[in-house]
Amino acid sequence: MNQSIIKYVIGKVMTIVGALMLLPIVTGIIYQEKEAFAYVIVGAASFLAGQLLSRKKPKNTMFYLKEGCVVTALTWILISIIGAIPFVLTGEIPNFIDAMFETSSGFTTTGSSILKNVEALSHTSLIWRSFTHWVGGMGVLVFLLAVIPMSGGSNINLMKAESPGPSVGKLAPKIRNSASILYKIYLGMTVLEIVLLLIAKMPLFDTLCISFGSAGTGGFGVRNDSCGSYTGLQQWITGIFCALFGVNFNFYYYILDREPKKSFKMEEVRTYFCIIFASTFLIFFNILPRFNTVESALRASFFQVSSIITTTGFSSVDFNLWPSFSKVILVALMFVGACAGSTGGGYKVSRLVIAIKTVIKEANSYIHPKSVKKIKMDGECVEHDVLRSINVYTITYLVIFVVSVLLVSIEGKDLVTTFTAVAATYNNIGPGLAAVGPSANFADLSYFSKIVLIFDMLSGRLELFPMLILFHPAVLKDVFLKKKALKATK
């Protein structure tokens, strides 16, 4: 394993995280809050440590998928730890496990919170808390590839390890150009949402935090009722942008590249919007008697469907009080998730489409044993390796989910709380149901349960395998044996 390049990349990431803390520092200065000093200390320490680790570029800059997975997992654990320290230093979240839960939830764009009174936080910490969504949405390593020149054709392995979805390809011949294109689209859409929310008369601070959250499909609000107290227009804008950020970014690239036919041929995107529309209207008719107007019922239905399927996690109403039919649809959407290549989490629509086609193909083979049919996606045959990887992912996904539910159930909470707490964190959703519903939080869970859920959040965001590979005995053996060999030579 090329440990020198892993150390170098981690150093670059620490430098970036330190620099990103300028936003809460500037916010603290504007609002004259003493909490900004904590971010100055942590930001400076992270920046300097990163500079020391990456001061010397290794001669061998090649790394394979194994190194890509290891560096991705280490990076996300490290940024969660660094991001949590200011909360502890300010005393706003004095317990480190709680602080890391909050920050892991932020960077993984989950939106689950342990805070009972969000509005008690300083503006400095609120902006950092929401900004972690934006940073984690597209990925910190994708950002690294976009802004820092890194040689070597193996850089695609960093994107593969970090980007959500069953496959990652190049939008441009060079990986850096692909990463740059993704971030330009991401930034442009974020700015557009900010402008529209400002036109809708949302306060500037709220606008920035809500836009960071919806862009990264996170879900941290700056009010205790999440988005419930915003105007109808502001909720419509936020809900629409949540849905737009859940679309595969290749869709936008093709439009910008003047190839709209390719955009609308994307079967995953068409299925994604069909699911949103169908779910919205099913819930709308189910909850209509509970609302005074048709518009408010339709808005609440669309907002929650958009927020849940994209794994954003904002709430405009307490959907925990809705009929069971509507709640079952929302729980199902937690597992479906957004499109591959978006900022959303979950199982991904593309995997679901291919899985359904596989079941149909197998059923047809029983009826017509001699027929030979290929599974197609967007008019092209799906390769066997893709099908195999989806099958492996599905099995792994279910195993981790079941084990997590068993571990969290040790605490003795009711089944709905336990099940949806794991579903909400594992799929990077935010709120669950019952004791972890939209009007509640995760504060009352035990520290053991929170640690399990932190692992679930990181695993879900990184598509499972980077976290599993990091703790694989062969990888640990490789790392420790090399360290012992180096000591022996010295």
From TrEMBL:
It comes from the Bacteria. Its main location: membrane. The keyword Transmembrane applies. One of its GO terms (cellular component) is plasma membrane. The keyword Disulfide bond does not apply. K(+) binds at residues 109-110, 218, 311-312, 428. One of its GO terms (molecular function) is potassium:chloride symporter activity. It is a multi-pass membrane protein. Keywords: Cell inner membrane, Cell membrane, Ion transport, Membrane, Metal-binding, Potassium, Potassium transport, Transmembrane, Transmembrane helix, Transport. It is found in: Cell inner membrane. The chain crosses the membrane at residues 9-30, 36-53, 65-89, 131-150, 181-200, 236-256, 268-288, 328-347, 390-410, 464-481. Belongs to the TrkH potassium transport family. PANTHER family: TRK SYSTEM POTASSIUM UPTAKE PROTEIN TRKG-RELATED. This is TrkH family potassium uptake protein. It comes from Candidatus Weimeria bifida.
